[in-house]
Amino acid sequence: MATAAAQKAAETEPGGAGSTAARAAEQQAAFDEAVAADERIEPRDWMPDAYRTSLIRQIAQHAHSEIIGMQPEANWITRAPSLRRKAILMAKAQDEAGHGLYLYSAAETLGVSRDELLDKLHSGRQKYSSIFNYPTLTWADVGAIGWLVDGAAITNQVPLCRCSYGPYARAMIRVCKEESFHQRQGYESLLALSRGTQAQHEMAQDAVNRWWWPSLMMFGPPDEESSHSEQSMTWKIKRHSNDELRQRFVDICVPQAESLGLTLPDPDLKWNEARGHHDFGPIDWTEFWDVLKGNGPCNDQRITQRRRAHEEGAWVREAAAAYATKQAGAPRADTAATAHGEATA
Ligand SMILES: [Fe+2]
Ligand SMILES: [Fe+2]
């Protein structure tokens, strides 16, 4: 943020009657002006507490989804049907770990620690995307996840590249590039199955039938029931409503499903000439809320495995911290050489 208003806010003299209230008003005005001008809010800038809290909630939930999302697909790494598929799937799962790291780092710029966020995930006080509470029953699920789940993630995340909070927006640029690869590999894998034997084609269709509706739920509840949407849009954290993004995703998927030679499991899905969009059938929001409450098929399994992975990784964190402390205390070779050079010059 580098607007004239921000500058003015920074230059305001402290002290004097009513100066605290005046200063707060100026800070708020500078923030509002920066958001209105599509400038980025950076970690050292003043921001309303509610904006900070809302971003921490959203970025943490996003980070948690990236690392929990590794589990359903990791389930198939050892059983990938070829070396090529295994290498692709391992690369994808590693990308998701990387996305988690960028996002936890982005959250840390808001003054919250990674330990605190992980603790909230492990104790159920922060959520991750409900889509990862569904099981991966066959190899085709890996393709369906790449095509539909990563595809829905891209639809959600491309607008986040213009999010008002700088570190989140910048993390999203790299994440979206990698998500494109994830979506493509899923599509290509499903295409190979769809054009394969009858059994392979049926397996691909079955996976799409199971993942389609949960993918539509990834955009969150309908606009009229979405508690955070309106404020997030005012702050330009979000740029489009849940229903807008869901519609965009449906419109993208319909022709892709045709190219794949697969159908989408919705008898009401049809082009609406007047709207210029596809109409689609009602979403089972009872299922959505039920999974969100913890009653999905894999909620317990996912969180138990996450806690176990965290405990088993304790020695790695300890070793990394000990190494960092050692490095911070020891003189670096290049620094020592420079000092010596200066002394003899
Ligand atoms: Fe990701
Ligand atoms: Fe992904």
From TrEMBL:
Chain intervals with Low complexity compositional bias: 1-13, 326-339
SUPFAM superfamilies the record matches: Ferritin-like
Domain of life: Bacteria
Stored InterPro entries: Aromatic_CoA_ox/epox, Ferritin-like, Ferritin-like_SF, PaaA, PaaA_PaaC
Gene3D superfamilies per the UniProt record, alphabetical: 1.20.1260.10
Pfam families according to UniProt: PaaA_PaaC (PF05138)
Disordered: annotated segments: 1-29, 326-345
NCBIfam families documented for this protein: PA_CoA_Oxy1 (TIGR02156)
Protein's UniProt name: 1,2-phenylacetyl-CoA epoxidase subunit A
Organism: Streptomyces alfalfae
Organism taxonomic ancestry: Bacteria, Bacillati, Actinomycetota, Actinomycetes, Kitasatosporales
